[in-house]
Prior knowledge:
- By secondary structure, the chain is of the alpha+beta class.
- The chain is built from five helices and eight strands; from the N terminus they run E-E-H-H-E-E-H-E-E-H-E-E-H.
- A four-stranded antiparallel β-sheet has the order 3-4-6-5. A two-stranded antiparallel ribbon has the order 1-2.
- Helix 2 packs across helix 3 and helix 4 runs antiparallel to helix 5.
Amino acid sequence: MKGIYDFDPKLYVNPITGVTKIGYNNVALGTYLLKKAEELLEEIERMPRECKREFLRAFFDDEGCMDFRPARNKRRVRGYQKNIRILSIVQSLLADLDINAHIVLPNEVLITGKSELLKFQKEINFSPGVRVNGNRSNSIWKEHVEKRDLLARAIDSYQI
Length: 160
């Protein structure tokens, strides 16, 4: 961000969750970033494989989760997005990396099955340090767990 904007952001820390939100509070900067986001969506499918990987990793780090519930035999990577166009782009980029995913309307993309989860793990994975919030009232883990560790657990849980 320092490359395009010289000022430091305002930091807002949620004392309950520990999540830090940053804000720049600049209308011109907001307009510029919206324009760049649109350009990215227009160009990402023509970009090199590594750019596609990074885009997908950022998407799943932010908008995704590892849905691993052994008692219910659930093992899937889920990505949420209200914008169907973005879901379609994500599905297409995954297909470019030979990962089969399907869109479940109204707002999610799913990757299921051991072979697809293995491909996701190898090609994209979640970034180190990205964790589920164990403090959430609906957390089944009741601890902060890295998404990539949950993915590995889910894959390892398949019977041979």
